[in-house]
From TrEMBL:
The chain crosses the membrane at residues 12-36, 90-111, 131-153, 160-184, 204-224, 231-250, 270-288, 300-316, 346-364, 376-405, 417-436. The keyword Oxidoreductase does not apply. It is found in: Endoplasmic reticulum membrane. Its EC number is 2.4.1.256. GO terms for cellular component: endoplasmic reticulum membrane. Pathway: Protein modification; protein glycosylation. Dol-P-Glc:Glc(2)Man(9)GlcNAc(2)-PP-Dol alpha-1,2-glucosyltransferase that operates in the biosynthetic pathway of dolichol-linked oligosaccharides, the glycan precursors employed in protein asparagine (N)-glycosylation. The assembly of dolichol-linked oligosaccharides begins on the cytosolic side of the endoplasmic reticulum membrane and finishes in its lumen. The sequential addition of sugars to dolichol pyrophosphate produces dolichol-linked oligosaccharides containing fourteen sugars, including two GlcNAcs, nine mannoses and three glucoses. It comes from Schizosaccharomyces cryophilus (strain OY26 / ATCC MYA-4695 / CBS 11777 / NBRC 106824 / NRRL Y48691). This is Dol-P-Glc:Glc(2)Man(9)GlcNAc(2)-PP-Dol alpha-1,2-glucosyltransferase. One of its GO terms (molecular function) is dolichyl pyrophosphate Glc2Man9GlcNAc2 alpha-1,2-glucosyltransferase activity. Belongs to the ALG10 glucosyltransferase family. The lineage of its organism: Eukaryota, Fungi, Dikarya, Ascomycota, Taphrinomycotina.
Length: 454
C-alpha cells in the first residue's frame, strides 16, 4: 500500500513542515553525509576510540579501552545491529544518520503533540541544532543518547510507565548524566495522576515556589497507593545508577583524573548564552517587530534585575571561571577560539557579565509564560546538576538542557520557526564546508589532516 508524500512528511517531521522543507532537510543531510564519508574516510577525533571499541565488540572482544569515559551503549547497539548494518565505518556512521534525520524529528514531533495538543513544525528546528546535527554525520554517542532520553520523556507524557522507565534504564548505557533527566521524566509521569498547586511561572512569587514544592510532596505522599506502580520501575533505575557509582568509584568511566567533579557556575552563563544564540531568530524577533523595541531593550539593560545580577555575575566570572587544560590543548573545536581570545586579555571575560545578564532576563521572559513552577524547578535542577560539576566546556553538554527548555517555548508563527530553521541549517552548511574543505596540519603530526568541528 502506498503512502502519500504529504502524509509521510506529516508523520515524521510535523504537521506544518511542508514537503519542500522536509526535502531540503533530507537532501542537505544526505549530501553532507556523503561528503564527510568521501573526504573523511577514516575515523576522526573521538571516532578513533568509538569505532575501535565497537569493532572489538563486533569481533566479540570485550576488552574495554580505558581512554573512553562514557558507557558502552552505542557499541552494544551497533553490535546487535551488525547482521543488518555491519561494523565498517560508513555503516556505523549511518546508524547515527538514521537516528538523527528520521528518528529524532519523529520523537520530537510526538512530544510536541503531547505538550501542545498540536504539532507545529518544531521537530526539524530542534533537530537542526548545529552542535547536535553535526553528530549525525559521525560516530559519536550524542545522538543515540538524546533520542533514547527523549523517547523516555515521550512515553512519560503518554503515561506509559513501563516503557518510559525502560528507556530511562537504557539511556544510562549511553551517558551517565542521563540519570538527572530520569528524575525529571519520573516527575512528569507521576504528575499525570496528581492534583496540586502549581501556577505558571510568570504569575508566581517566591512564596509560590515553597507552596508548589510542599503541595507536590504532600500530593505524592497522599497518593502513594495510586502511583507506587509507576514509581517502582524508576526506583530500580536509580538503584542501578547508584550501584554503578559505588562499583565504579565515580560517575566517569576510564580516565577519572581529567574529569573530576567541580563547582563551575560559569557553565550556566555559557548555557544561557548558547540558548540565546541558537534561539534568537524566533524567540527574540517579536521584540524587534514592535514599535517600542528600543524602550524594551533599554528597560532590560537598566532594570533593577540587571543591576542585582551584574555584581553576582562579575563575582562568578572572577572566581569561578575554570579553563580546563583540554580546552586550550585542542584547536580543532570552535570553543577553543572563544576561550583563547578571552584568555589573552584579563578584562575581556568581564565584558561577558552584562551579556549573561541580558541572556538570563530574556531566557526567563521567554519561558515564564509556558512553564509551571514545578517544571521550572525540576528542569533548572537537572540543568544545574548536569552542567555545574563539569570543569570542561563542551557544546554537547548543552544539548539535552537546550532541548528540554526549548520544547516548552512555542513558535509564534511559521515565519519564526522558518527563520530559526534556516539560521541553523546555514550554520550547519558552513560547518560542514569548513570541516571538509578547510583542513590544516599540526606540526607534531605533519602527515595527518586536522579539521574544525563543534
Amino acid at each position: 500500500m502506498s503512502i502519500k508524500k504529504g502524509r509521510l512528511v506529516k508523520s515524521l517531521y510535523g504537521a506544518g513542515t511542508g514537503s519542500n522543507i522536509a526535502v531540503l532537510w533530507i537532501l542537505t543531510s544526505l549530501l553532507s553525509f556523503f561528503l564527510v564519508n568521501r573526504y573523511v574516510n577514516i575515523p576522526y577525533m573521538d571516532e578513533i576510540f568509538h569505532v575501535s571499541q565497537t569493532q572489538r565488540y563486533c569481533n566479540q572482544d570485550w576488552e574495554w579501552d580505558p581512554a573512553i569515559t562514557t558507557p558502552p551503549g552505542l557499541y552494544l547497539l551497533s553490535y546487535f545491529l551488525k547482521p543488518v548494518l555491519g561494523c565498517h565505518l560508513v555503516a556505523l556512521r549511518s546508524l547515527n544518520f538514521v537516528l538523527g534525520v528520521v528518528c529524532l524529528p519523529a520523537v520530537l514531533f510526538d512530544i510536541n503533540k503531547q505538550l501542545s495538543g498540536k504539532a507545529f513544525s518544531s521537530p526539524l528546528v530542534l533537530s537542526s541544532l548545529p552542535p547536535l546535527w553535526f553528530t549525525f554525520l559521525l560516530y559519536y554517542t550524542d545522538i543515540a543518547s538524546t533520542v533514547i532520553v527523549l523517547l523516555a520523556y515521550d512515553f512519560a507524557l503518554r503515561n506509559a510507565a513501563i516503557l518510559s522507565s525502560a528507556f530511562c534504564f537504557f539511556s544510562l548505557f549511553f551517558r551517565q548524566t542521563n540519570i538527572l533527566w530520569v528524575g525529571y521524566i519520573m516527575v512528569t509521569l507521576i504528575t499525570n495522576d496528581l492534583s496540586f498547586y502549581d501556577p505558571v511561572l510568570s504569575e508566581a512569587t517566591f512564596v509560590d515556589f515553597f507552596l508548589t514544592i510542599t503541595s507536590f510532596i504532600g500530593s505524592v505522599l497522599r497518593n502513594l497507593g495510586k502511583i507506587w506502580k509507576k514509581l517502582l520501575p524508576f526506583v530500580f533505575v536509580f538503584a542501578f545508577s547508584m550501584g554503578f557509582l559505588v562499583w565504579n568509584g565515580g560517575i566517569v568511566l576510564g580516565d577519572k583524573s581529567n574529569h573530576n567533579a567541580v563547582i563551575h557556575l560559569s557553565q550556566m552563563n555559557y548555557f544561557t548564552t548558547f540558548f540565546f544564540f541558537f534561539s534568537f531568530p524566533s524567540c527574540f524577533s517579536p521584540l524587534f517587530k514592535s514599535a517600542s523595541w528600543k524602550p524594551k531593550i533599554h528597560s532590560v539593560i537598566f532594570s533593577r534585575t540587571t543591576l542585582l545580577l551584574l555584581p553576582l555575575l562579575l563575582l562568578i566570572v572572577k572566581y569561578n571561571t575554570i579553563i580546563h587544560p583540554f580546552l586550550l590543548a585542542d584547536n580543532r573545536h570552535y570553543v577553543f577560539y572563544i576561550f583563547n581570545r578571552i584568555r589573552r586579555y584579563w578584562w575581556l571575560k568581564f565584558l561577558g557579565a552584562p551579556i549573561y545578564a541580558f541572556c538570563y532576563i530574556f531566557f526567563i521572559k521567554n519561558i515564564s509564560q509556558y512553564v509551571s513552577v514545578l517544571d521550572f524547578t525540576i528542569i533548572t535542577l537537572a540543568t544545574l546538576l548536569t552542567l555545574v560539576p563539569a570543569p570542561l566546556v563542551e557544546f554537547r553538554y548543552f544539548i539535552l538542557p537546550f532541548l528540554f527548555w526549548r520544547m516548552k517555548v512555542p513558535w509564534k508563527s511559521k515565519n519564526a520557526w522558518l527563520a530559526e530553521f534556516f539560521f541553523h541549517m546555514s550554520l550547519n552548511t558552513i560547518s560542514v564546508y569548513i570541516f571538509i574543505y578547510r583542513p590544516f596540519f599540526w606540526h607534531s603530526e605533519p602527515g595527518s589532516l586536522q579539521r574544525f568541528m563543534w
